[in-house]
Design a protein that fits this description.
The strands form five sheets. This protein has a 16-stranded mixed β-sheet that branches. Strands 2-3-26-24 form a four-stranded antiparallel β-sheet, with helices on both faces. The longest helix has 19 residues, at 36-54. The protein has a domain at 143-331: Jelly Rolls (Sandwich). By secondary structure, it is α+β, with helices and mostly antiparallel strands. It has helices spanning 3-15, 21-32, 36-54, 67-75, 328-331, 346-357, 383-391, and strands spanning 85-88, 100-105, 108-116, 126-129, 143-144, 147-149, 155-157, 164-169, 172-176, 182-186, 199-204, 208-213, 219-222, 226-231, 239-250, 259-262, 267-270, 274-279, 285-292, 295-299, 302-306, 310-315, 320-325, 338-345, 360-363, 370-377, 396-399, 402-405.
Length: 407
């Protein structure tokens, strides 16, 4: 099967609602990156598929949407601002699985599913017309930066520090690598205990993230508005650190010294594994997600053993911890450079926006009961998010560092 046939096959699967998320993204990615000659060559067969859908020859929701309009948007999406116009002629009791087939913003793909919940009578007809947002001034996304506070109180701004050795603490040399990562090296004789152990704290402000390598080789990624307190070298029976905010850990194996992460409400113990901890104070839950290995999660008098693909969730409203299947892609999306929404409400989205774009969110109006699913690259400017909000008729204005949701 050549590439053209493959694209047509994906397109047909999408119309039958038989397209996986990966296939859907592949389809839209291919369509919007076509050169003009290729796009024109494919338009006819794709148009034929749309016609089949409208004629009822394919299982689809052709009677629910303006197929001609959406077809033109998909074929010519790369040349248009992300404006969507929908005419909902079916009862509101129907939940739309995928209303926005694709929103392409600065070359980045968002496959957005908008889930509507409402108490309006089922027979009511609602018409939604969305205009593209045109922001006079954009806001850049976060970058790699952190503030390091040494045990002696000295402060080092890592974004502006020179590469190489930036501090010597006992037997440890603190090195800022050319890649921008922070690392430790030491010259302790094997079997001996290092001397002069001290504790440092690395903190990321809003609109920043950072990666460091601890003295035992453990790799840590810190999300925005997070901090990690850790020793310059690990002594004693375990390797303990303290986390606020969110961090992803790839722990070096050491059967003799378990690695322990303390948060305000949970304690996570591992020997060597990959896992993510989300423990922001403004989030409803504390989540520990395991990708590889085994993790022991402890809260109050409750202890659970996590296996890969599982997630421990501590509910702040009732102070109870549950274990469930994890959405791994969502849990580590930030570390891989994405926002990942899975039926996320506006509050959840705006908390992430606040941390990554350094904004204070102000609500002047009650938010619509609406949920979003999709993936957006975190490297895009703020307009990439605001286009999504505007296309859902969420009104806002920006005043300095205030992002104000309007009536």
């Amino acid at each position: 099967m050549d590439l053209d046939e493959h694209v047509q096959l994906l397109f047909a699967k999408y119309l039958r609602k038989d397209c996986t998320d990966k296939e859907f993204e592949e389809l839209v990615t291919w369509l919007v990156t076509l050169d003009n000659d290729k796009k024109n060559a494919l338009s006819a067969p794709l148009r034929e598929l749309w016609d089949q859908a409208k004629a009822g020859k394919l299982e689809s929701s052709a009677d629910q949407v303006n197929w001609d309009h959406i077809y033109d948007r998909v074929i010519h999406l790369a040349d248009q601002p992300p404006s969507i116009s929908l005419d909902e002629t079916l009862p509101r009791r129907i939940v739309w699985r995928k209303i926005a087939v694709a929103v392409i913003i600065f070359g980045v793909i968002l496959s957005a599913s908008i889930y509507y919940a409402t108490r309006k009578p089922p027979a009511e007809i609602v018409k939604t017309v969305v205009e593209p947002l045109r922001s006079p001034k954009d806001i850049n996304p976060g970058k790699n930066n952190a503030v390091l506070k040494l045990s002696n109180g000295a402060i080092i701004i890592l974004d502006s520090a020179k590469k190489g050795v930036i501090a010597v603490q006992g037997d440890e040399k603190l090195i800022l690598l050319d890649s921008g990562k922070l690392s430790y090296t030491h010259a302790v004789i094997p079997g001996s205990e290092p001397e002069g152990i001290s504790f440092n704290t690395i903190s990321t402000p809003r609109a920043a993230q950072y990666q460091l390598v601890l003295s035992d080789g453990t790799k840590v990624w810190l999300n925005a508005a997070s901090s990690l307190r850790y020793p310059t070298a690990f002594t004693g029976k375990d390797r303990s650190v303290e986390l606020t905010g969110e961090g992803y850990f790839e722990v070096t194996k050491n059967k003799e010294k378990p690695f322990v992460v303390h948060t305000n409400d949970m304690e996570i113990t591992v020997l060597g594994t990959h896992f993510n901890i989300m423990a922001y104070e403004d989030e409803n839950d504390i989540q520990t997600t395991l990708l590889e290995g085994i993790v022991n999660v402890h809260h109050d008098k409750q202890t659970d053993l996590l296996k890969p693909g599982k997630q421990a969730i501590l509910r702040r409203d009732n102070n109870k911890m549950i274990v469930s299947d994890a959405n791994i892609n969502q849990a580590v999306a930030w570390k891989n450079g994405y926002f990942y929404f899975d039926k996320s409400d506006i509050n959840e989205i705006m908390r992430q926006v606040s941390r990554w774009y350094d904004l204070d969110i102000v609500y002047e109006a009650q938010l619509p009961d609406m949920k979003f699913s999709g993936k957006i690259e975190r490297r895009i400017p703020l307009s990439g998010i605001t286009h999504l909000l505007a296309s859902s008729q969420i009104h806002f204005r920006i005043e300095g560092k205030k992002f104000i949701i309007m009536k």
